[in-house]
Write a structure and sequence with these properties.
With 188 residues, the protein is mostly helical. It is built from ten helices and no strands. The chain starts with a helix and ends with a helix.
Amino acid sequence: MGEQLTRVRRSDAAANRARLLDVARALFARDGLDVPMREIARHAGVGPATLYRHFPSKQDLAIEAFTVEMQACRAAVDEGLVAESAWRGLCRMIERLCELHARNRGFTEAFLATFPDAVDLTSERRAALGAVARLAARAHAEGRLRRDFAPEDLVLTLMATRGLDALPEPARPAAARRLAALIIEGLG
């Protein structure tokens, strides 16, 4: 009987954790990182103590919640690096990153670390900018990328995607693609 009760508790805890992550992902994407932890707990149908038992801080929760986005970001950069044409790789990377960031306001805030309580993604950002620098050097060698491009310009691109928050959610992906096209046009 005790073993059965333990299994029920474990599955209940796992379900609570999964629900908390789902709710956090949705609220962070929609509202950014300013969402209070109590609000996340309330939307997940659990008490704050349950939330804090699984995620002692908002940073812990956000890092776990943004795992998929970080993987997508890394994949976009990695695909750009292995592209036969550095220019095409850079363009495709910009398109994918604009779409990714337009879909998730919280991830953009965390990645850019634009306010004091932001999740620390410094090492991820540093790695991404290092990869962009290598890709940009190859695109410069191909003669396709404007000479004054710096990897930090990618940060400006991502900052520009924050303006897409003003649009209704269904319009953001198309607007992100259009923004990426305009940015790419300016880089060539």
